[in-house]
Amino acid sequence: xxxxxxxxxxxxxxxxxxxxxxxxxxxxxxxxxxxxxxxxxxxxxxxxxxxxxxxxxxxxxxxxxxxxxxxxxxxxxxxxxxxxxxxxxxxxxxxxxxxxxxxxxxxxxxxxxxxxxxxxxxxxxxxxxxxxxxxxxxxxxxxxxxxxxxxxxxxxxxxxxxxxxxxxxxxxxxxxxxxxxxxxxxxxxxxxxxxxxxxxxxxxxxxxxxxxxxxxxxxxxxxxxxxxxxxxxxxxxxxxxxxxxxxxxxxxxxxxxxxxxxxxxxxxxxxxxxxxxxxxxxxxxxx
Length: 287
Fold this sequence. Notes:
Domain CRAL-TRIO: 86-256
Protein name: Retinaldehyde-binding protein 1
Organism: Chrysochromulina tobinii
Number of strands: 5
InterPro entries: CRAL-TRIO_dom, CRAL-TRIO_dom_sf
Strand content: 5-15%
CATH architecture of the largest domain: 3-Layer(aba) Sandwich
Strand order of the largest sheet: 1-2-3-4-5
GO molecular function: phosphatidylinositol bisphosphate binding
Radius of gyration: 19 Å
Structural class: alpha/beta
CATH class of the largest domain: Alpha Beta
Number of domains: 2
């Protein structure tokens, strides 16, 4: 655990019930997880425990239970949790289907970007397994940031010309694959504060009806559809047009959807260089 700024520490206490003895509670939870799944397995998911405690508002029993569920999910889907490096995912990110902004919104939330129309070219090149492996790697890096753990995350989604059948054409994009995707979303320690979508076609309502049974309850309650009213979406999301690419109703030109992976790759390389005393941590710059 890191030393938090006074404002962030106060927010954690008010919104997440963070106790005065948070470090002691964390250590107790860690020891319980070790007793249940083993020390090596606990180390494997060391990045998740603090985030899960904050997600559970410091309900230690709930966080420990979720850690065990994550370990069980990983044992059933071991192909998703192999050791990976940033360069393995740059080709996926270049398509522009998923990224996040290098700035937070007015509430301090990290802003993920999902461009639905890019799902078609993505599905032609990659499988559901590729997508989930990228998501697991992505989450394990994002959730190291204590600011992200406390403030949470929102998603902006561009649904213009969303390809309804793209997932069907993706290898592994069966109902079982979609279920595995939602199961991972439920088990991850992401504090999703809202999903803000624009330019949705008429059939999105039908698709939501099919996928809602697999969505966590809180996600179902935090999906907002704005149609063509991009200004209203940005206002609700706590963002200005200058901060957001045009696909999401903003005016930010030349956005590099791989910026975070390139930063992580630089960090990985710097960490391996002899004589480097301290590399810049990616989370310091919103990774």
